[in-house]
Amino acid sequence: MTRAFRTSFPEIEAYMRSCMSDSAHDAEHVYRVLNYALDIARHEGGADTERLAAACLLHDIGRREQFADPGVDHAICGAEKARNWLVGNGYSTGFADAVKSCIETHRFRSCSPPQSLEAKILFDADKLDVCGAVGVARTLFYKAHVAEPLYSMTEGGKVGDGADGEEPSFMQEYKFKLENVYGNFYTKRGEQLAAKRRDAARHFYDSLLAELRECFEGGALVIEENIL
Q1: Residues forming a β-bridge with 159
Q2: Within a 10 A sphere around the Cβ of 94, how many other Cβ atoms?
Q3: What are the helix and strand counts (H, E) for the chain?
């Protein structure tokens, strides 16, 4: 007899919590993704909410392995871990395989697009948490965790804006990912929620770049006039 999702929800939560170890991808990120996903599912209709909820809870359990070895894809690793745990704890292989498929394709940088409705909702829900002010805050946390800077300097001595060719930094991540995430949603509800947050992220980026450049330009002038 296979497990009933409602009765084992706390066990899935506990397993998820045991796998989370960084501040940008912590249990609270997982709960936000779950809340976004259930909101989207309610508007879309037709989703299997038990499979969706399990996939949301377990979608980032491969992060620890990716941090230990950057060559590991946390989506692929986490999908396999999730399937093994679910089957080992009484879930049917059909349920476990469906959850695995959702987790495998949730990553923004993946070349494998989500196929099922549940997988598309998970993808959108996870991307919503890198939108707006929350997305900026999480990216700053992550960059600090992996010891990457806020910005890099150009050869001309200016603060870089994160454009192509720059070293990894918050500014580079904004231009590569945060600025572009708003056009990659599979559901109408996900797109609507993301659009509300776009201006907050753009305003932060523009303000940060302006303040940094003002700092360096003013300092360079003083150095040139009074020190060199």
Answers
A1: 153
A2: 10
A3: 10, 0
Tell me what pLDDT residue 1 has.
Answer: 38
Query: So what's the pLDDT on residue 165?
Result: 78
Residue indicated by tokens 């797109």: 191
Domains in the chain: boundaries: 1-118, 130-228
Token digits for 214? 């003002």
Contacts of residue 102, Cβ cutoff 8 Å, sequence gap at least 6:
51, 52, 55, 59, 114, 116, 118, 119, 122
Alpha-carbon gap, residue 22 to 94, rounded angstroms:
31
Q: How far apart are the first and last CA of the chain?
A: 80
**CA 202, CA 174: separation in Å to the nearest integer?**
9
pLDDT digits (tens, 9 = 90+) for 40-89: 999 999 999 999 999 999 999 999 999 889 899 999 999 999 999 999 99
Topology (CATH) of 130-228: Methane Monooxygenase Hydroxylase; Chain G, domain 1 (1.20.58)
Fold of domain 1-118 = Hypothetical protein af1432 (1.10.3210)
Q: Measured between alpha carbons, how far is 120 from 25 in angstroms, rounded to an integer?
A: 20
Q: Cα(142)–Cα(57) distance, rounded to whole angstroms?
A: 20
pLDDT digits (tens, 9 = 90+) for 88-112: 999 999 999 999 999 999 987 667 8
| Average pLDDT of span 3-25 | 84
The torsion region of residue 151 among left (phi > 0), alpha (psi -120 to 50) and beta comes to beta
From residue 159, alpha-carbon distances to 20, 124, 135, 167 in Å are 34, 32, 22, 12
Q: Is the pTM of this model over 0.85?
A: yes
